[in-house]
Structure formats: structure tokens, C-alpha cells
Write a structure and sequence with these properties.
With 476 residues, this protein is an alpha/beta fold. The protein folds into two domains: 158 residues, Cobalamin-binding domain (Rossmann fold); 245 residues, Alpha-Beta Barrel (TIM Barrel), CATH 3.20.20. Helix content is 43%, strand content 15%. The protein contains 19 helices and 17 strands. Strands 4-1-5-6-7-8-9 form a seven-stranded mixed beta sheet, sandwiched between helices. It has a six-stranded parallel beta sheet with strand order 10-13-14-15-16-17. A two-stranded antiparallel ribbon has the order 2-3. Strand 13, helix 11 and strand 14 form a beta-alpha-beta unit. Helix 1 crosses helix 7, helix 11 runs parallel beside helix 12 and helix 18 crosses helix 19. It is globular. The chain starts with a strand and ends with a helix.
Length: 476
């Protein structure tokens, strides 16, 4: 058995690169998702350790010291952070040349050979697609030639691409990631602006039925079949969490679309209702009112909903599978039932124009989710959007980056009728038009005056938000 360290490497200050984050970037307000994709194999490998550097503010020196005590390091990487992660790997190799270092994540899953070549001697292998049991076999010191799902360098320096690993079907066979959280993480380090603090998040299933052209995980790692844990298994992990983390105020299910299977979502909700917990999840804006009521009656507080755009043609262009009229009705149902919504929107998708941007801003203010996130279209390698952008000349792949030198998301796509600078600048416009309205300001103030904790939190978030805007101006 190899002594194994699972590592989310040190990166930009405030950089949320964990595999739970939909966009690896620095946020408008300080946000950190749990490193669930690393915690899952860590739960399978006896005696392992997980270090999540950014939220815990763990330095490279400390990581290097920890690495010297291990035989194998498994690093999560992403397209935006890859260059920085290679530098970390090089530092670890320098400190202990015998160390075996591998990378996991969507970036290396879709570009295994290119990633190895770019990293040089800094890394020894990459694990593709679902890598839980791949890493377990590596840690058990099996011969690399016999391990499905890895790309590696043999003794002669040649790149070897082993066969694909079979897709995991029995999701209940995975151990609880929250045991690793309790062992190695401090849950108070994890913040999400729209979730109660402290929160805990994990997956109840993998894969997503939708085929959104921009979405990273289903197209690279999770797939388009929703493979799920049983309601009883999910409830058992929540019960376990209640014992380990009595301070938790909210649980979040990080499945790409928790509501893909409505009967199962209702069954899980009823189990959670018995436990008396508050919870939230990702949802598509098409959940029927009858299901919403069952979820709400059993502890649901908030839904994270990807609206993306207020223009129907853009939704068709990105294969969202959502109608604006259905989304409006869904949102109205949520408001009436008392379910809060964190709505996410993307600027710069195919078909975008100044007119559609204004249409989306108008749509957002009309449906009025509790909070919003505005992101820039990010063509991650492995996605249909990336292929489409290359074919149409929207992306200069040699010069386009997804983040700047400080980890701030930038606009890599440009269209003949809409420059990337216009897309970038409209993110700030969107936020200001949504939040700087009398009704929205009144609602925020109302939250603050009824809760001292909320007052402290909103004031902190306000400071971080305006700092974020200043940083964006520097990046422009």
C-alpha cells in the first residue's frame, strides 16, 4: 500500500478550483466548494490524507512538507489552474524525486497525452473519467500496465494509454465522503454566498440527462446517464453527518441536476423530512409544483437553477432543453411556496448580442430569484462549446485564457458582432441592474435587520463584491 496524499494545490488567493465548482475561478464573494471528487477516492484508500489548500490557506511549503511523508500524490487540476498546478507538482518532485504524482479532473480526462507532455517530468500519470477505483488500485501498488483508466509514461518515456475503466453503476458501493471531511477538513472554511453557514455538500448521484453544450462535468467525467445512490443510503450519510457536524445549518446535494429523477427526489425528501434537516440542491427550471411542494414540506430551502439566458433562441443554441414560459411558471411556483432560488446566468453564449444581453437582464429582474450569479461563457476542452468555438473562429486557442493572473474569470469568446470586451463589461452591468433596485435593496436590508448573523455576512459579502468589481476593472 502506497502512502497517499490527495491534494487540491495552492493557487490564486481565493481561487475556488474544487471539483464541486462549476467554474474554476475567483468569485464575486468568497466561495469554496468541497473537494468531493478528491474526497471520494480518499475514502477508498486506507491511511490516506486530503489537503484542500485554497480554503484552508495552506502554503506550498506546508504542502511540500506533507508530500515528503507520502509515496503517492493525487492532484486535482482544471484547465484554468493547470499551469499553476504543474509548478506545484514540480516543487514536490524537487523536494522528493521518488514521489509518484498523478493528476485527475476534467482537463486531464479529455487531454491525457497533451497534459503529460506539457507537464514533462513533473507528473507520472493522469487518471481519466471516473477515477475512484483507478486511484485505489494505484495506491494498492498494482502494476500500472494492469490498471484501467490511466495514461502514463513507461520506463522508456513512451506514453501508454490503458483501456477505459468501466462506468461505475453501483453508487451505493462508494464510502461516505463526509467521513473524510471530518478527518481532514474544517467545514467552517467552506462558504457559499447563498447557502447557510456552515454547510456540507456531497453527491447523491453522477451524470446529467441534459446536453447543455457548455457544461463541463457530464461531457467529460460524469456522463449523461444519471446514476444514483438509494434514498436510504443518502439518508444514512445525513444521519452520520448529524453526529459528526452538529453545527451544520444546511446540506447541499451537488448532483448536476438532482431533480432529473422526480420520484427519487421526492423519496429522498421524505427521508430528510424525518431527520428534520434543512437542505438545498441543483434543479432544472421545469419541476412541477406538486413535487416542489413535497420537497418544501420536507426541508427544502433553496434551489440552484441554471437559467443561463432569457432568450429562447440562445437556449435552443446551447441545447438547454428549457422553455422560457415553463421557467417563468416554475419560478412563480417557487416564490409562492416559499422556496428561495439562486439563479445562474451566462453571458457570451452562441447567439449572444447586446440585445439578448439586455433581454436576459430584463428576464432576471422580472422573475426575481433571491440571488444570482453571472458567469462568462467558458469553452472548456472536451465540451461541444469548445469544439464549436474552434470551428467557427470564436476562440483563439493560442491566446485565449479562462482566467487572468489573479484568478478572475475573463471572456475568451468573441463574435463578429460582439467583442469579448463587451461581454466582459456587461457582467457588471447585469449585477448592478439586478441588485441596485429598490425592491431588491429593501429585501436585503430586511434580511439584515432581522438577523445579526445575516447582517455581518451581507456586509462582508458587500465588501468582497465591490473588491471583485475593482479587480475586474484591473483585468479589463
Amino acid at each position: 500500500m502506497m502512502k497517499t496524499l490527495f491534494l487540491q494545490p495552492p493557487s490564486f488567493d481565493g481561487f475556488d478550483g474544487g471539483a464541486g465548482s462549476r467554474y474554476q475561478a475567483k468569485r464575486e464573494i468568497k466561495s469554496f466548494w468541497y473537494p468531493t471528487w478528491l474526497a471520494q477516492p480518499a475514502a477508498l484508500v486506507e491511511g490516506s490524507k486530503l489537503i484542500d489548500s485554497p480554503p484552508a490557506r495552506i502554503s506550498l511549503d506546508s504542502v511540500t512538507a506533507a508530500a515528503r511523508e507520502h509515496d503517492l500524490v493525487v492532484m486535482h487540476t482544471s484547465t484554468p489552474s493547470f499551469a499553476s498546478d504543474i509548478r506545484v507538482a514540480q516543487a514536490l518532485k524537487t523536494a522528493k524525486p521518488s514521489l509518484k504524482i498523478g493528476m485527475v479532473g476534467a482537463k486531464v480526462a479529455v487531454q491525457p497525452k497533451e497534459s503529460l507532455e506539457r507537464a514533462g517530468e513533473a507528473i507520472d500519470f493522469v487518471a481519466r473519467n471516473e477515477f475512484d477505483f483507478t486511484i485505489k488500485e494505484l495506491a494498492n501498488d498494482r502494476p500500472w500496465a494492469d490498471i484501467d483508466g490511466i495514461t502514463w509514461r513507461d520506463a522508456n518515456g513512451a506514453t501508454v494509454h490503458n483501456k477505459e475503466r468501466a462506468t461505475l453503476e453501483d453508487m451505493d458501493s462508494l464510502p461516505f465522503v463526509t467521513d473524510v471531511y471530518a478527518r481532514d477538513l474544517r467545514i467552517e472554511d467552506y462558504f457559499i454566498g447563498y447557502l447557510l453557514h456552515p454547510y456540507v455538500s456531497f453527491y447523491t448521484g453522477r451524470g446529467c440527462k441534459s446536453h447543455c453544450t457548455f457544461c463541463l462535468w457530464p461531457q467529460t467525467v460524469g456522463g449523461h446517464r444519471y446514476r444514483v445512490r438509494s434514498p436510504e443510503n443518502v439518508a444514512a450519510e445525513i444521519r452520520n453527518c448529524q453526529k459528526m457536524f452538529p453545527q451544520v445549518r444546511e446540506y447541499f446535494f451537488d448532483d448536476d441536476t438532482f431533480t432529473d429523477d422526480l420520484p427519487r427526489a421526492e423519496a429522498i425528501a421524505k427521508e430528510l423530512g424525518k431527520l428534520g434537516v434543512t437542505w438545498s440542491c441543483n434543479a432544472k427550471a421545469n419541476v412541477p409544483r406538486s413535487t416542489l411542494k413535497i420537497l418544501k414540506d420536507n426541508g427544502l430551502r433553496l434551489l440552484l437553477v441554471g437559467y443561463e439566458s432569457g432568450n429562447q433562441q440562445i437556449l435552443y443554441n446551447i441545447k438547454k432543453g428549457m422553455r422560457i414560459d415553463v421557467a417563468r411558471r416554475f419560478t412563480k411556483d417557487c416564490h409562492e411556496l416559499g422556496i428561495k432560488i439562486h439563479g445562474t446566468f451566462i453571458l457570451g453564449l452562441p447567439g449572444e448580442s447586446q440585445e439578448t444581453i439586455q433581454e436576459t437582464i430584463k428576464f432576471a429582474t422580472e422573475i426575481n430569484p433571491h440571488t444570482i450569479q453571472v458567469s462568462l461563457a467558458a469553452p472548456y476542452p472536451g465540451t461541444f462549446l469548445y469544439k464549436q468555438a474552434l470551428e467557427n473562429g470564436w476562440l483563439d486557442v493560442q491566446n485565449a485564457e479562462l482566467i487572468d493572473d489573479h484568478g478572475i474569470q475573463i471572456a475568451p469568446l468573441t463574435y463578429p458582432h460582439l467583442a469579448h470586451t463587451e461581454i466582459f463589461d456587461n457582467v457588471e452591468t447585469f449585477y448592478k441592474k439586478f441588485y441596485f433596485r429598490a425592491p431588491k435593496i429593501a429585501a436585503i436590508v430586511g434580511e439584515m435587520v432581522t438577523s445579526r448573523q445575516m447582517m455581518v455576512r451581507r456586509l462582508r459579502e458587500g465588501i468582497e463584491f465591490f473588491q471583485f468589481l475593482r479587480d475586474r476593472h484591473k483585468a479589463a
